[in-house]
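Re: the pair you flagged

First of the two:
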Amino acid sequence: MTSRIHRNQIIAALVMMFMTLPSTARSTGFEHLDEARLDAALALAGANRAEIARAVAETPESHRADMIWLVGRMPEADLRAFTATQLLENLRLSVEAMEAAPWRDQVPREVFLDAVLPYAVVNERRDDWRADFRDRFLPIVESAGSPAEAAALLNQKVFPQVGVKYSTKRPKADQSGLESIDAGLASCTGLSVLLIEACRATGVPARFVGVPLWSDGSGNHSWVEIWDGERWRFTGAAEPTGMDLDKGWFAGRARGAVRDDPRRAVWASTWNDSPAHFPMVWAAEDRSVRAVNVTDRYTVDPVEVPDGFGRLYVRLRDLESGRRIAAPALVAVDGTVIGRGTTRDDSFDGNDHLEFMVPLKADFMVRFELPDGELEAGQRFSRDEQMLDVETGISVKEKTGSRGKGLSRKRAEARIEQAVKRHRAMIRRTRGEEMDAKVLELDGRSMPFWYSVKGEPPAGEGRSLFISMHGGGGAPPAVNTQQWENQKRLYDPAEGVYLAPRAPTDTWNLWHQGHVDDFFDRLIENLVVFENVDPDKIYFMGYSAGGDGVYQLAPRMADRLAAAAMMAGHPNETKPDGLRNLPFTLHMGGEDGAYDRNQIARRWKTTLADLAAGDEGGYPHEVVIHEGKGHWMEREDAVAVPWMAKHRRVSRPERIVWLQDDVTHSRFYWLAVDEPKARERIVVERSGNVIDILEGGERGLRIRLDDSMVDLDAPVTVRRGAEVVFEGIVPRRRAVIDRTLKERGDPAGVFTAEVVVPAATKS
């Protein structure tokens, strides 16, 4: 009873303290100091509520607003674990570092809160690092007169001082600074965390930045942004460029980032409110780190302002909430459209605005296209960097239906042809070395491969590609390498490229880890160009542990394949739902009883037959149990090769069953999602110009289309149950062509139009 009274007294005192905060502390727009937010944080703290409340109550009044700001944005796991002492010490050291810094007057309060005060960078282990790092690293920055200069010095000297270097052999990706010091090794993620902690400990505002996937599909990268007193600047952790910022090997790569593709955009971490989360590829399910989209800073060249012109910044905000809204917009002067673009929502940096170049002293008008109509606003353009700040609900007009027509069918086809030619040239220019070496390198892993070319394809067709996965796993590298050598000789297709990759790892799950999908995507993309492979004639096959891989990869990569063959493997937890449009053959020795492989194969035979019977035209399959045979089927399973070769990929099926695995994909046939979720199941079918979402997709869905699927010159209807969620003309767009080609480099997987179905509203 005593502890309960004590806790209630603390909370009561805290609420009274909050209600008596000075009005200036309660009204600053970025702090959101309200009872609801504080109550929500305390509720999330659960049994740790009293500790969090005590931290706020015992904070000196001059910095209590800072503590409330931090507490209101802490991840739930931290609210349940942090002590009041830890939070108070973190605040004290943050404030002391900032107040002692010669550049303190160059750091706005909102930057201090977001990039100095937080005790965490991303999802790394929570350590008490501030006092330690201040003692270690403050001497490095004593001569610095600006945060940029201090950051450059830290990047030069911290890593040699603590003995940490880059290595893919680091214990894990998301190491804290102290974990990296203990290991002596760190990935780009761990190096960035260490540099950011060193910066914050010495009063330098710093934040974590990265791209989940480079535009060419070659893995992710992380780096650091520093506030220099006026703007954010970047640097590579443990990759100093003297005293300069905004230099690094990755700068050129970042120019290929895609702002509107979450997997290929550049993101900066933030503790501020944002609807977006940082896509941590090392912890794909973790949504606890908020982010802002800063892609344009890396992809757009510095703008030269012509004489007589200036830059117009446009911001569109919701009338009630004040949050920024993304909407198509155009600017016109004297009735002539001089620019188009899309406004930024709150997933973008707060200083990132839609920008137009406008003649000085001109009267301009900006028109926004909103879901319920059009909105117009205008001004006299009087100076460079003028801001047009518009709230919805001011001057909405009824829609005229005059949405841009987009490309004609002929122009869209020409655009695809041009884009594919450019893409093929890029692949030849940038990938020749890895093809000559026959080794792919992605995100610190290597995958050697071997292949031979057999026969000639039919006239007018490209070659077939058979990717054949070896067995082994959970064994020394020499054993797995010998299995690879065996696989090279195991099958002999009459025509095509027979390719045997060597697994990137030696673990038991050789072929169904997430990096395998990326390696195979890249292999296919390369072979289409270098060996004239037909993208509609790709086949997966594998024996033993390689068969495990086929079980797992075929359902989640079915849209890349013409057919798949599983030999002597085990499916683990995978399910066959995604095989709806993929011919699938399974071969198993009747006496192959290890891990119940034979009995599971018999169950799959029944399951596939039931699925095919219940879904007309779906689940084409052939299951062969080789009675009397054990794990080695004495090559009887080789009949799977000509069986597969009879099939071509169905790239635009009328019905899609998409079941996400634990390794998720953002695209499957003509469907895409912005935030893939493990085990999510989506079923969609099309008939003529009507598309029905039969299951799933409640969190939003992208439907890709082209003229082979629907009549794009007539209205398209999309239904979710009885509700019509879209009806209208879907224009052919260059952006859709370019995006769908860039996603995979699949010339047969390019679409020209897209319907974005919003998340379902909760009743």
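Second of the two:
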Amino acid sequence: MNNQNVPDVIVSRLPVYLRALQRLADTGVSTTSSQELGEKVGISAAQIRKDLSQFGEFGKQGTGYHIPFLIERLSQILHVDRIWDVAVVGMGDIGHAVARYNGFANRGFRVAMCFDADPAKIGKKVCDYPIRDAKNLAQDIKEAGIKIVMLCVPASVAQDVADKLIEAGVCGILNYAPLKLIVPSHVRVQHIDPAIGLQRMTYYIP
């Protein structure tokens, strides 16, 4: 089930619920309540029930949620009940760290391609994959059917690279470049800027 009218803020909480449920399942727990789940993720039980109600009925009052079923349904809703091949574009420090991160596989993602424009990096292996020449970016992405890309290039070239990716059929971009990308309405962009996150945090630190 997928409802395009569900607010982004609700969708953003679903992966948090899914991760907490998977951790509970790993400990052998088979049922949970909205109260217990809320304590795990720092969200009220009422909010969790309201969020889940956007997608149907998942539990009964007094009996709680069956964890394996809820994991299955949330995975379906988030479309991570399959493995998505993703590409990393830009193999600097951030790109290397992202490509080597071992937490993607159990979340429904596999780094299948890496690209860079630096001749000194092209051909070198990262996680058993050779870094590809960015000159062939659009063609390779299109031929492989890649729909999701993690963009780790400098801000000065980020928009140009994003345009090429979108022309090649990419629908989702996780953007590490410190630049707000301008994209068509059918393309989803998530901006990741650690410096912005730090600045938000320092507001609260005397």
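The chain has two domains: 8-77, 84-197.

-B.
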